[in-house]
Amino acid sequence: MSSHIKVFFNLSIFILLLSSCANKSDKKEILAQAKPSLKEKIGQMIMVGFRGISVTEKDAIFKMVNDYHISGVVLYSRDLPSKEHVKRNVLSPTQLKKLNQNLQAIDSTELLISIDEEGGFVTRLTLADGFENHASHQAIGDLDNIDSTRIWAQNMAHELSELGINMNYAPVIDLNINPENPIIGKRERSFSDDEESVLSNSRIFIQEHQNQGIICVPKHFPGHGSSDKDSHKGLADVTHTWSKKELIPFQELIKDGSLDVIMTSHVYNENLDTLPSTLSPKIINNMLRNDFGFEGVIISDDMQMRAISNFYDFETSIEKAIIAGVDILLFSNNAAPCPEGSNENCVEIPFDSEIAKKAIDHILSLVNKGHISKERIEQSYQRIKKLKKQL
């Protein structure tokens, strides 16, 4: 039998098996066993935000999941680019649960459905929309009570699990070095300025989420707690305020095997590198991978935050992040508009329903040109695949 006939024969058998499946779960199992293409592996390195309180086959996000096999989605309550208080993905518990079920049913590969649910100021699930009210990290840290922390984390994790959310961008394990920090301290997002308090509360938070089948994404490596600027809005330079003490929560949680995923920060620290952390091989590959021995998935903070987008174009930032060692590139697709009277360095970032396709096509082009190796893509793909086996 010639090689061409063999290929045709094998393909015919695969199609026959697929069409004879009794239900969708059987089809998903067969599809999952098919060898993924390079483009599909690249798709697993992309996570995006989208518009819509429901999903149909006509929607752009359906195509991104079904055709481009992206790793996951990130949910938001408000649509910031619209410049209005427009709802984005969240209306009510019933609506959100249905949305997540429909998203999960699109592709054979388990979808990471993620959210920033820290409690306090940083919540996408508000009491006004029928969700539970969760205290902030700072409020829990101030209580300094193990039982209170456990109940708080249990309630949060249970709610997320019931809604079909399987990844939470939390806990925040930044130390509250600067209480006036506009994005950490002032937002009550840190448990404490004491590393032992951060460690004890974070461990409980992570354990309770794992018990509910939810992946935690501690943040923001190598520490955002000492900054005096918000990296959402521009450069956050911690060169003169950051200390090695901020690494301790990451080091200790890696050492005891608590961390499956870590989110990078976009802070700039000239003492570590001349690149922001997310784009730095010295910080990600050398420090986090080699020095600390972290073998899990590294996910970027939003690549559209202005600490990145004000200084690097879309294509350059993607290439640098992958070379640095990032496994999943997060594009919120939900950047706030430039404030009135802002300087010309602030670039408007509109919503883009094709952003996942553009990112995947660009990475594929980088591989084809030899700028990024297939082996580098395979590294990230295998880490992500291993992570999803937990779900």
| Largest sheet data | 6 strands, parallel
Strand order of the largest sheet: 7-6-5-2-1-10
Radius of gyration (Å): 21 Å
Helix content: 25-40%
Q: How does the helix and strand content classify structurally?
A: alpha/beta
What sort of overall outline do the alpha carbons produce when their principal axes are compared? Answer: globular
Beta percentage is 5-15%
Order of helices and strands: HHHEHEEEHEHHEHEHEHEHHEHH
Distance between the ends: 42 Å
In DSSP terms (H or I, runs of 4 or more residues), the helix count works out at 14
Report the CATH architecture of the largest domain. Answer: Alpha-Beta Barrel
Briefly note the CATH topology name of the largest domain: TIM Barrel
The overall pLDDT, averaged over residues, is 92
Top CATH class of the largest domain:
Alpha Beta
The total beta strand count reads 10
User: Could you state the CATH homologous superfamily of the largest domain?
Assistant: Glycoside hydrolase, family 3, N-terminal domain
Runs in which pLDDT lies below 50 for 5 or more consecutive residues are 1-22
Number of domains: 2
Report what the structure shows.
It is a single chain. With 391 residues, the protein is of the alpha/beta class. The chain folds into 2 domains: 1-34; 36-388, Alpha-Beta Barrel (TIM Barrel), CATH 3.20.20.300. Helix content is 40%, strand content 7%. The protein contains 14 helices and 10 strands. The strands form 3 sheets. The chain has a 6-stranded parallel β-sheet with strand order 7-6-5-2-1-10. The chain has a two-stranded antiparallel sheet with strand order 3-4. Strands 8-9 form a two-stranded parallel ribbon. A hairpin with a 6-residue loop joins strand 3 and strand 4 (86-87). Helix 7 (146-163) packs parallel to helix 8 and helix 12 packs across helix 13. The longest helix has 18 residues, at 146-163. The two termini are 42 Å apart. The relative contact order is 0.12.
